[in-house]
Write a structure and sequence with these properties.
356 residues; alpha/beta; Rossmann fold; 2 domains; 15 helices; globular; Nucleoside-diphosphate-sugar epimerase
């Protein structure tokens, strides 16, 4: 891979950090761009830049001419209209700066299942419930969605510059990360650790549809493999793909097994949703006590748990299953057992002193 130079945009995040690690282990020269660069991997070449500042980007990328660009980041805003403006601009800025170099062969963009379910503001609240399993040929919704804006920026740049592209739509990425807005696995681990320390039950926060229905998730390591596969496989270029582990599960079974891992009492769905954001609203001081008691690396609850996003995932009024046939037919056969993915994550968090 000496002729392949990767630029991971968002290399400090749950997706970007796992992707960078996979690229480096596969022999790629790898640069990681972020506002606060990832320095945990000594073989990653960090780049600090603001995606909303073209001059900052141009200066930071001077001397860097990537062949493959992986866009794995986004910025949360108060409204979907602002999400569209900001996140579309970030993609446009990075691709405009790189356009001058003429080196880019492929751009991979990570979005997600809100492509089918609607934005944070909509989230199946406007009377639309998509058919499951979700498939890539489902049309765009007639709703504002920053994922569509990001895609359109990639398409326009590809037409201008002649590179190929791939779009990747994972469902609830499970992997080790600190300070990431979408980290359900870590959030549940932190919640369980608090429950164990304080003798509280591990209460299911979501909907009855999610509790009883079938679901799937995406291991960050599998997503990394999928990104590399699509960007180096001719048949997979200029295509959009769903990306999940390959199995399905019911939270009604998995919830108790996760509770057993942490040796806490589990409580399933009762009569209504019990938001995790409300359950953990007063736990910042509790987490500080736990972090100091067990000498954990991160003392700020907000850095390791994002209850609001976990509530969005688990509060959906429908079961969510994702079809992977398109990738399978083109040769991507990687599989990850979901229960093992959670346990592996929890073991990693303990080994890294992020949970007790």
């Amino acid at each position: 891979m000496t002729d392949k130079i990767a630029l991971v945009v968002g290399a400090s995040g749950i997706i970007g950090s796992n992707l960078a690690e996979k690229l480096i282990s596969s022999g790629w020269e790898t640069y990681g761009l972020a506002r606060t660069p990832n320095t945990e991997n000594s073989n990653l070449k960090p780049i600090s830049a603001d995606l909303l500042d073209p001059d900052s980007l141009k200066l930071a990328l001077e001397g860097v001419s990537p062949t493959h660009v992986y866009i794995t980041t986004w910025m949360r805003n108060d409204t979907e209209k602002e999400n569209i403006r900001v996140n579309g601009t970030m993609v446009r800025n990075i691709l405009n700066v790189l356009s001058e170099k003429g080196s880019v062969e492929h751009v991979a963009l990570v979005t997600g299942l809100k492509h089918y379910l609607g934005s944070f503001e909509a989230y199946a609240k406007k009377g639309f419930l998509p058919e499951t399993p979700l498939r890539e040929d489902h049309p765009r919704l007639d709703l504002e969605n920053f994922y569509y804006a990001q895609e359109d920026e990639v398409y326009a740049a590809a037409d201008r510059d002649g590179f190929t592209w791939s779009i990747h739509r994972p469902h609830t990425v499970i992997g080790k990360v600190v300070g990431n807005a979408m980290n359900m696995g870590t959030t549940l681990a932190v919640y369980a650790a608090i429950c164990k320390e304080k003798g509280r039950p591990f209460i299911w926060p979501g909907s009855s549809a999610q509790w009883n229905g079938l679901s799937d998730v995406t291991d960050a390591r599998l997503l990394a493999a999928h990104l590399i596969w699509a960007s180096t496989t001719d048949a997979a270029r200029n295509e959009a793909f769903n990306v999940v582990n390959g199995d399905v599960f019911r939270w009604s079974r998995l919830w108790k097994r996760l509770a057993d891992y942490f040796e806490v009492e589990s409580i399933g769905y009762g009569t209504q949703i019990q938001p995790l954001e409300k359950e953990m609203a007063n736990d910042a001081a509790t987490w500080l006590e736990i972090a100091e008691k067990y000498q954990l690396r991160e003392k700020a609850l907000s850095r390791v748990a994002t209850a609001w996003h976990t509530d969005l995932d688990l509060g959906r009024p429908i079961e969510v299953m994702t079809d992977m046939s398109k990738s399978r037919k083109l040769g991507f056969l990687v599989y990850q057992d979901t229960e093992d993915a959670f346990y592996t994550l929890f073991d990693q968090l303990r080994a890294s002193k992020l949970i007790p």
